[in-house]
Structure formats: C-alpha cells, structure tokens
C-alpha cells in the first residue's frame, strides 16, 4: 500500500472516528432530552388533572380533552386502588407495585417504564386525597425520532468519511509531492551516478526541510566525489615522479652496478633512500587526507599547550633545531591525534624554510597558534593557495615535499571549526598558524 493511500485511509478513519464520538454524544444527549421532556409533560398533565378534580373523586370529564389529544392514557383510581375512570389509549387497569404506595397520600412516584401490548410506556402516578391519578404515554414517537436521528447520523458519517478520503488523497498528494520528487531524483542518481539533480521546493515545513537536507547531502556528495577525483589525479601525478626516479636508479644499479665505483654506488643508494623517504611521507599524507575525520578519532578535552610542547620537543630532537616557545596554558575540545599532526606539519614547514642556525618561534595565545620562521616569507598573491592540496610555490618546487602538509593542517582545523592564516612575521619570515574555537584558559 502506497504512502498516499495510507495517509488518505488514516485521515478518513480519523474523521470517521471523531464523527462517531460526536454522533454518540449527540445521540445520547438527544435521548436524555426527549426522556426529560416526556417526563416533564407527564408530571405537568397529572398535576393539572389533580387540580381540576380537586381531590373530590369526581370522574374524569370532557374538560380533559386536550390532555387526551396529546396521546396520554389518563386513569383515576379510588382509595382502594381500583380504576374508576380513564381517558385516552388503552393501558393496564391495575396499579403497578411502585405506584400503590402513593394512593390516598397525595404523594408521587418517579416516572416508570412499562411494557404494554408490545409497546414501551412511561407512566407517572400522583396521589390525591381520594385515590390517585396516573398518566402514561407510549415512547414510540420518541423512539421513532431517535431511530431517524441514528440513521441520519450514520448516513452523514459515511458521507463525511468519503469526503475525508477524497480530501485525504488530495492532501496526501500535496504532502508527499517533494517525497515523490526526492524518490525520483534518488533513483536517477542511483542509476546514472549524476549528482547534479536537485529538488525544487519552496515549502518551509518538515517535508520542505527534508528536500533541502537532501539537496545539501547531494551537493556534499558531489563535492566529495570531486575532491576524491582531484586527490586521485594529483596523487597519481605526485607519485609518478618518485616512482620513476626509484625505478631508474634501481635499473642503473642492477644493470651497471658492477661498473660503478664505491662513491657512485653510495650516491645512487643515497638517492634511492631519499626517494623512498619522500614516497613514504607522501603516502602517509595521502592516507591522512583520505581519512574521514568524523570517524577516525573521538573528540575529547585536550590540554592544547601540552600537546604543542610535545610536538616542539619532537621537532627539536628530530632536526636538532633551536625552537623557542611561548605557550599559554589552555584547553580545547578536539581530536588529539589530528591536532598533533597539524602542529607537527606547521613545525616541519617552518624548519624547511628557515635558514640554518636561525631559530623558530612558536607562540600559543588564547587558542591561536602561530609558528614564526625567518625564511623568505610567502608572497601575498600565493597565501590563499598554500593550504590547497599539492600546491607548491616556485621556491617550494626546489625543495623536497609533496605540498600536502599545510593542506592537512587546513583540513584538520576546518573540521574543528577553526581557521588557518598566513601573515608576515616580525622575525622576518612567515607567520603560519591557526585559531580554534571554544578555548578555555587554565
């Protein structure tokens, strides 16, 4: 069963159920009102007759014609409970058990229902000084009204349910129109692989939000696919150079190894080692870029100054370099492994560009990390590109590297809600760093 049919059926059932409740309340209220009206009429008739008789025991006369025309059976009993006069339709000529107590007491009893000649009667008995007056009337007319009302309510309920079903179909069609469009677009994307399709909607309800969310998801998927294709293409280009160099050097070593002297062989092996190191670093950076930052590591509270200090110590030992640090104690919510990688990449970039013997300065203040070097700096027209994958300035192309280090920094910082920057350093080189949100000083 389709969603449209289910919605229409649900709406029709809901309307019919609501109608049943309302009809039941209306029917019960009408029934009570009719019974109360009949009881009131019987009491009023008996009271009028008793007043006319004056308790004298005079038989009923033609003055009671109006009450008789109302369809009432009017009976007068003496003090012994014997019927002495009656007018109107035939009714039992004996007092019923609940009525005998009011004879000659001027009392009254509550209206009672009796079955007589296959009809239901409602009677009311009023005691007089000489006996009792009883007024009874058939409830057939009331029942006819109730039966007619019941039939009318049923017919109206069926019509209302039908109208609700038709309206439900139209409403369901309007509601699920974006869902139908979404299904068509999703099926088309699954079949063709084209991510350019979008759902056009101007609605601001939940279904409209679903359409907007779907469009965003498809756009993000298209961006991800584009970045994936670009990463694969760029990676294949970057991998080609070290692999070609390795293959060439290995072939030379294999074919002419016996003709090379010790220095030539050592130089050739050294080149192979350098290419292997660069290839290993490139592969590691590619894996880092391809890792989904949302599932690779859980976020936690991190002492950011301690993390930076440990990265600085490693860089000092690895490169035997002077690195000065000014670290303000602070905490951030983040993924420690990714943040450590980003800080290490900034330090590696500074070491690569700093002249031999020139110190590097690392400053952490209010959650903003800045690494100052004393190199040639970064031209203003290239600062927006240094964080792109595989981008390398003209000067950088003369140095080893893949152009992925700062791209990893940008990806990590962006995933943490921060931003990267490149400035001129007062030390004479470049000041490269990033700032993170939600920093708490300690």
Describe this structure as you would to a colleague.
The chain is α+β, with helices and mostly antiparallel strands and 442 residues long. The protein folds into three domains: 3-146, PAS domain (Beta-Lactamase), CATH 3.30.450; 206-289, Signal transduction histidine kinase, dimerisation/phosphotransfer (DHp) domain (Helix Hairpins, Orthogonal Bundle), CATH 1.10.287; 294-441, Histidine kinase-like ATPase, C-terminal domain (Heat Shock Protein 90, 2-Layer Sandwich). The chain is 54% helix and 16% strand. The chain contains ten helices and 13 strands. It has helices at 3-53, 65-69, 140-175, 177-192, 206-256, 262-290, 293-296, 304-319, 336-353, 405-415, and strands spanning 73-78, 83-87, 112-116, 119-127, 131-138, 300-303, 323-327, 330-334, 360-365, 368-372, 419-424, 430-435, 440-441. The strands form three sheets. The chain has a five-stranded antiparallel sheet with strand order 2-1-5-4-3, with helices on one face. A five-stranded mixed sheet has the order 7-9-10-12-11. The radius of gyration is 50 Å and the shape is rod-shaped.
């Amino acid at each position: 069963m389709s969603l449209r049919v289910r919605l229409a059926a649900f709406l029709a059932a809901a309307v019919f159920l609501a109608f049943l409740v309302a009809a039941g309340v209306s029917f019960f209220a009408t029934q009570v009102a009719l019974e109360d009206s009949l009881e009131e009429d019987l009491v009023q008739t008996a009271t009028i007759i008793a007043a006319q008789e004056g308790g004298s025991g005079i038989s009923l006369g033609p003055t009671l014609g109006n009450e008789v025309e109302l369809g009432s059976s009017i009976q007068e009993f003496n003090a012994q409970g014997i019927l002495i006069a009656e007018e109107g339709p035939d009714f039992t000529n004996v007092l019923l058990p609940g009525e005998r107590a009011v004879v000659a007491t001027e009392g009254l009893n509550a209206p009672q229902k009796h079955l007589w000649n296959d009809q239901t009667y409602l009677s009311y008995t009023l005691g007089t000084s000489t006996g009792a007056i009883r007024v009874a009337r058939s409830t057939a007319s009331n029942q006819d009204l109730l039966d007619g009302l019941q039939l009318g309510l049923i017919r109206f309920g069926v019509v209302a349910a039908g109208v609700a079903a038709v309206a439900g179909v139209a409403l369901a069609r309007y509601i699920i129109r974006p869902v139908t469009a979404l299904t068509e677009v999703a099926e088309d994307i699954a079949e063709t692989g084209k991510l350019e399709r979008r759902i056009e909607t101007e609605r601001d309800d939940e279904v409209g939000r679903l359409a907007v969310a779907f469009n965003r998801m498809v756009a993000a998927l298209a961006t991800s696919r584009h970045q994936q294709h670009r990463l694969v293409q760029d990676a294949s280009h970057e991998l080609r150079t070290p692999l070609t160099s390795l293959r060439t050097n290995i072939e030379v070593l294999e074919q002419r190894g016996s003709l090379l002297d010790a220095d030539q062989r050592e130089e050739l092996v050294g080149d192979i080692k350098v290419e292997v190191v660069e290839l290993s670093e490139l592969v590691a950076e590619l894996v880092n870029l391809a890792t989904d930052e949302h599932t690779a590591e859980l976020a936690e509270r991190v002492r950011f100054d301690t993390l930076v200090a440990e990265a600085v110590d490693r860089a000092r030992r690895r490169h035997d370099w002077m690195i000065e640090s000014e670290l303000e104690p602070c905490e951030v919510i983040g993924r420690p492994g990714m943040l450590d990688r980003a800080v290490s990449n900034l330090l590696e970039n500074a070491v690569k560009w700093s002249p031999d013997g020139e110190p590097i300065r690392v400053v952490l203040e209010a959650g903003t990390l800045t690494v100052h070097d004393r190199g040639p700096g970064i031209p203003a027209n290239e600062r927006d590109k240094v964080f792109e994958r595989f981008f390398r300035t003209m000067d950088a192309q003369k140095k080893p590297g893949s152009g992925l280090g700062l791209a990893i920094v940008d990806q990590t910082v962006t995933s943490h809600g921060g931003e990267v920057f490149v400035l001129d350093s007062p030390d004479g080189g470049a000041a490269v760093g990033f700032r993170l949100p939600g920093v708490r000083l300690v």
